[in-house]
């Protein structure tokens, strides 16, 4: 570190301050022993498969939101599952920092888009299959 508290990131070369835990540009750790970033791909996969239980938020150290999602699902006996899943779908595309305000590592937006497209195809295929059989 220089006298003014600035240095450069070892990975991308951007100027960082002593207060930065991770590089704002690439997310690399600025010093040994700092907080490790969580994987965005793991976050999106957990949200897709276990979003109703808020498991992805527990993974990302966002415990409050995870408890609310799990509580709404259980206390409504699944009747509000559609609302929780809509919330999870929005989170899959918008959340880029974990509960410690550390940028997540990787790009999960492509994973989310692929899972959303595959889920839509499976859903519409399952809905349309009986009509296909009747038309044959």
Provide structural commentary.
By secondary structure, this protein is mainly alpha-helical. It has 2 domains: 1-34, no CATH class; 37-135, no CATH class. It contains 5 helices and 2 strands; from the N terminus they run ββααααα. A two-stranded antiparallel sheet has the order 1-2. Strand 1 (6-8) and strand 2 (15-17) form a beta hairpin. The protein is elongated. The model has no long low-confidence stretch (mean pLDDT 85).
Taking the alpha carbons of the first and last residues, their distance comes to 73 Å
Low-confidence stretches: none
Backbone structural class: mainly alpha
Strands, count = 2
| Helix amount | 40-55%
Count every helix, treating DSSP H or I runs of 4 or more residues as helices: 5
Shape: elongated
Strand content: under 5%
How confident is the prediction overall: mean pLDDT?
85
How would you write the strand order of the largest sheet? 1-2
What oligomerization state is this entry in?
Answer: single chain
Number of domains: 2
- SSE topology string: EEHHHHH
Rg from Cα: 20 Å
Main sheet specs: 2 strands, antiparallel
Brief digest:
By secondary structure, this protein is mainly alpha-helical. The protein contains five helices and two strands, in the order E-E-H-H-H-H-H.
Q: Helix and strand layout, with pairings?
A:
Layout: E1 6-8, E2 15-17, H1 40-50, H2 55-59, H3 63-75, H4 81-94, H5 109-135
Antiparallel strand pairs: 1-2
Helix pairs in contact: 1-4, 1-5
């Amino acid at each position: 570190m220089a006298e003014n508290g600035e240095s450069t990131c070892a990975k991308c070369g951007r100027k960082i301050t002593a207060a930065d835990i991770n590089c704002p540009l690439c997310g690399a750790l600025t010093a040994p022993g700092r907080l490790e970033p969580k994987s965005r791909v793991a976050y999106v996969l957990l949200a897709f498969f276990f979003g109703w239980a808020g498991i992805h938020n527990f993974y990302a150290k966002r415990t409050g939101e995870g408890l609310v999602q799990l509580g709404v699902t259980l206390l409504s006996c699944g009747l509000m599952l559609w609302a929780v899943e809509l919330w999870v779908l929005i989170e899959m595309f918008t959340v880029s920092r974990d509960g410690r305000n550390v940028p997540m590592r990787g790009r999960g937006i492509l994973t989310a888009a692929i899972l959303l497209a595959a889920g839509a195809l499976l859903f519409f295929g399952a809905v349309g299959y009986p009509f296909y059989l009747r038309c044959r």
